[in-house]
Each structure stands twice: as C-alpha cells, then as structure tokens.
From TrEMBL:
GO molecular function terms listed in the Swiss-Prot or TrEMBL record: oxidoreductase activity
Protein name listed in UniProt: FAD dependent oxidoreductase
SUPFAM superfamilies: FAD/NAD(P)-binding domain
PANTHER family tied to this protein: FAD-DEPENDENT OXIDOREDUCTASE DOMAIN-CONTAINING PROTEIN 1, SARCOSINE DEHYDROGENASE-RELATED
Pfam families listed in its UniProt record: DAO (PF01266)
GO biological process: mitochondrial respiratory chain complex I assembly
Domain of life, per lineage: Bacteria
C-alpha cells in the first residue's frame, strides 16, 4: 500500500489530537471547531490523506432508518438532516465555489422478510414509525404490485423505507467536513501515530512516524479499522477489527423498470441501481478479522454466492456482467456491531469513536457532534449516545442491534 510522504505538525502540542481523518474523524474535527473556534488547538493525524483505502472511500455510501434500536434510528435521522442541508451548511467554507451537494438518491431500502420473520419485522416497522420514520410493511401481494420484478414466492413480505433512506456521495461528505474544519483552524497532517505516552491516567503525548513527540490534552481514536492498534498504544483493548467486504458493479441484459430501492435479500445480499448499472455485495462466507493491509479481491464471491441470490430474488438478473469491483474494510465491533463512543474510565482523556461495523459513514454526523459535546461540555447535549459507552465492553454486555447487514 503506497502512503504519501509524511509531514510534521506545526506545533509541539495540541489541546486535542484526533487520530484518523476520514468521515468520523473529520466530522469530530468539524463539530469541535464550530464549538471551540480559536480557543483550542486541534490536530488531525491522517496516515493516508489520499483516503484511497479508507472505509469512507470504499463504502457503499448509504443511509437508512430501518434499525431495531431507537438510538440508531435517531442517529440516522440527524444524518439525513445533515445530508439534505449540506450545501447550505458548507457554503460559508466554500467562498467563491459551489458548496458540495451530496446527491442524495432517496430510493429507500427494501428489507425482504421470511414468513417466520413477519412478526419481528412488523414490530421494527412500528418502532421506526413511532420515531417518525416512513417505513411501511408490505405483504407479498402489495409488495409484488409495487415491485413487479421481485420474486415474492418465499417471502412473508417486506419493509420499505419510502422516504429519507438511500445513498449519497461519501467523499463529498468527508471533504466538506474536512474543508470546513481546516477553514475553522483545525490542522491536518499527513503522518501516523506510532505510540502513545500515558502517565497519571492520561495520554500525555503521541509519537509520530516522522519521529516527533507531540503533547496532547485529549486524544481521540477515530482510526476506523485500525482502532485497536491505536487503543493498544495506550494499553487499552476494544473488540474492533477490519472485516473485508466485497463490492461489485454490474450490468444487466434486462433493465429493471421504475425506481429501484436498495434490496436486502434473505441471504444478506444487497443490490441497488446506479444509473444504468447496479451495485451489489454481501457478507462473505469467510467473514472474520483480516489483516490491516489485506484488500485482496475474491471474485468468486460474486459467481458462487451473490449472483445465485440475485437471480432467485430478481429473475430478470439472468444475464449479468461485472464491470468493476473493490474490497473495503468494516471497522467491525465483534461484541455487538454497534459503535463505541466515549471516554475510557481509567485513561480519562482517551476518547473512543470506533466500531461502527459498516454504519460509520451514515452515523458520522451524529457521532462527531456527540464526541464534540463530551469534550466541550462533559456530557451529551443532543442525542444521548451513552448506550455506546466503552463501559459495556469489559462487562461483555452487548448493546444489540438486530438489523445488521
């Protein structure tokens, strides 16, 4: 993996050091810069400012409200608010240039439901609707009427997010937050944190790949799939590891008419439209922790598992051709697939913002705001993300989310 030449930071110490500058790290930097202005020095250390291998760049860039946990629904609702209003929010930082429009394609998610899963699916829809989501449950007949290209013979129905779900420009979100943070005084440096000095229950300094040691008032771990590497430097441990996900863009000899949502099959395979093409992926058979630098593609995943699932669910997909493919990493929380957000109880200035298990991009606006609130105010001011706190990790008490892709 090629890494750009490293550079040194401008200061010998900072009030806040954020390790990782992709969507989550840059969102944190943005919200902190808006809350603190010039009253605090903030450094973002990003090991690869090209973001070529970042989870943000390699994400499928989607957002949904179809979760089983109320806090995840609310997190996504705030994410949609930010995505829709992004050009106006970013306009002050793009003087003389058009502010980024994230191209939100509000086509929704369609979760296929087995006959035995209907009761649980209906309960999730009721929960989501009670929180203001637009999810509806469709029985097989109405489901077939709305999406005539769908095979519903083995389904008990489907839950469809008719509004405020879809996909958007991931790098537009990242670059907007990053530019706004830098324009507000945040320093970004191409470098890598290689060690942390801990004394008196606090991180006092970070060591960089270029040999410098910089002092730090607060250390934020926003290192994505490398989160455990950073935590270990402070003598800490979280159950977060990189898990590989393979994405495929394909063409179909038979077009799909109408407005196609992101279809989540019973098999776990998803597929959505991308103009005249389609994007698909799944949970691979060999799912498990991967090496940090392992981005090797497994093309057989499409031929042996994805295509058969697609053809069964959407019979029009009988003649497909892969046009592009890539491998990305989930920062997978092996305990419960939910994020870890908050200070460590013993290393008291070490902040976690990790383990979002494929949801980091869509959750980054709310997580960035929440981390900023904890640092600035010592408590959440808007959404209460305390269920994501680190304390559940050593207690081995999962904060469960049923709707995981």
């Amino acid at each position: 993996m090629a890494i750009p030449p490293y550079k040194t930071p401008a200061r010998a110490g900072y009030d806040i050091v954020i390790v990782g500058g992709a969507a989550v790290g840059s969102s944190i930097a943005y919200w902190l810069s808006q809350a603190l202005g010039a009253s605090a020095s903030i450094l973002v250390v990003e090991r690869d400012s090209s973001y070529e291998f970042s989870s943000t760049a390699l994400s499928t860039s989607a957002i949904r409200q179809q979760y089983s946990n109320p806090i995840n629904v609310k997190i996504s609702q705030f994410g949609v608010e930010i995505i829709r209003g992004f050009p106006e929010r970013m306009a002050p930082f793009f003087k003389g240039e058009p502010a980024p429009d994230l191209g939100f394609r509000e086509h929704g998610y369609l979760y296929c439901c087995s006959p035995e899963g209907v009761e649980a699916a209906r309960a999730r829809v009721d929960l989501q609707r009670s929180l203001g989501a637009h999810t509806v449950f469709l029985e097989p007949g109405p489901l077939k009427e709305r999406f005539p290209w769908l095979n519903v013979e083995d389904l008990g129905g489907g839950s469809w997010g008719s509004q405020e779900e879809g996909w958007f420009d991931s790098m537009g979100l990242l670059n907007g937050f990053r530019r706004a943070a830098r324009a507000s005084g945040v320093e970004y440096v191409d470098n890598a944190v290689t060690g942390l000095d801990v004394a008196g229950g606090k991180v006092v300094a970070a060591k960089l790949a270029t040999g410098q040691t910089i002092s730090s008032g607060t250390l934020v771990d926003a290192a994505g799939p490398r989160a455990q590497q950073v935590a270990a430097m402070a003598g800490l441990s979280i159950p977060v590891a990189p898990y590989k996900r393979y994405s495929f863009v394909f063409s179909s000899a038979t077009p799909i008419p109408g407005r196609m949502p992101n279809v989540i099959d019973l098999s776990g395979t998803f597929v959505r439209s991308e103009g005249e093409l389609f994007l698909t992926g799944n949970t691979p058979l060999d799912d498990g922790p991967a090496d940090y630098d392992d981005f090797e593609m497994h093309h057989e995943e499409f031929d042996e598992r994805i295509w058969p699932a697609l053809w069964h669910r959407i019979p029009a997909f009988d003649a497909l051709r892969v046009q592009a493919s890539w491998t990305g990493h989930y920062e997978y929380n092996m305990l419960d697939h939910n994020g870890i957000v908050g200070f460590h109880p013993e290393v008291t200035n070490f902040m976690f913002a990790n383990g979002f298990s494929g949801h980091g991009l869509q959750q980054s606006p709310a997580v960035g705001r929440a981390v900023s609130e904890l640092i600035v105010h010592g408590a959440f001011q808007t959404l209460d993300l305390s269920p994501f706190g680190y304390e559940r990790i050593p207690r081995n008490e999962p904060f469960l989310e049923e709707a995981v892709i």
